[in-house]
Write a structure and sequence with these properties.
The chain is of the alpha+beta class. It has one domain (3-187). The chain has four helices and eleven strands. This is SMI1/KNR4 family protein.
């Protein structure tokens, strides 16, 4: 099974409530994971974490609507054939707050670096500086996402997307043995 077929199947089965169905699927880069994965607005008052993602760098594919907004982000932890057979469960059990402008896919280490007092790049002394950089980079990018290194020493990064929704859902795909094989984030 090729990756586009898998992503179309996932998009059709787990359609975003926003009504913005992905027109195309593109590889957005790799997310460095050293903790739980979060798809949220830059400064959420509350957030949920999808735990159990193995540490490492994992490929992320996005579904882009006709409007240019990202409506789906899939963190792939296995081959498409394995993911296609997976059972998906709600990883957040609630709606995740999401800005109507920008969504971030990050792990809790990157979030901690930017929102709290974690180690961070000298380029981003605070979240406001990071957000201005992300917005400018998105405006100049030829594609609807940017990958931004947060901490060069640890490799921590953030993927930022233009979104058009006020919340998101996250689904955890597990194989027959219960192993996490995919994290699927959808805008509501």
């Amino acid at each position: 099974m090729d990756i586009n077929t898998l992503l179309r199947q996932l998009a059709d089965e787990y359609q975003p409530f926003s009504g913005l169905s992905p027109k195309e699927f593109l590889r957005a880069g790799d997310l460095a994971v050293a903790g739980g994965v979060i798809f949220s607005e830059p400064d959420p008052a509350e957030w949920s974490v999808c735990d159990g993602v193995p540490h490492g760098r994992w490929p992320v594919y996005v579904g882009v609507a006709e409007s240019g907004h990202v409506t789906m982000a899939a963190l792939l932890l296995a081959a498409p054939e394995v993911i296609a057979e997976a059972e998906f469960e709600d990883a957040y059990e609630d709606h995740q707050p999401l800005s109507e402008d920008i969504g971030l896919l990050w792990d809790d280490a990157a979030m901690g670096s930017l929102r709290f007092d974690g180690p961070r790049s000298a380029d981003f002394p605070d979240l406001g500086t990071f957000l201005k950089h992300a917005e400018a980079a998105l405006a100049a990018a030829p594609v609807p996402w940017v990958e931004i290194p947060v901490n060069p020493e640890t490799g921590s990064n953030v993927l930022a997307f233009p979104v058009c929704a006020d919340s998101a859902d996250c689904w955890a795909g597990r194989d027959a043995d219960g192993k996490l094989v995919c994290v699927l984030c959808l805008t509501d």
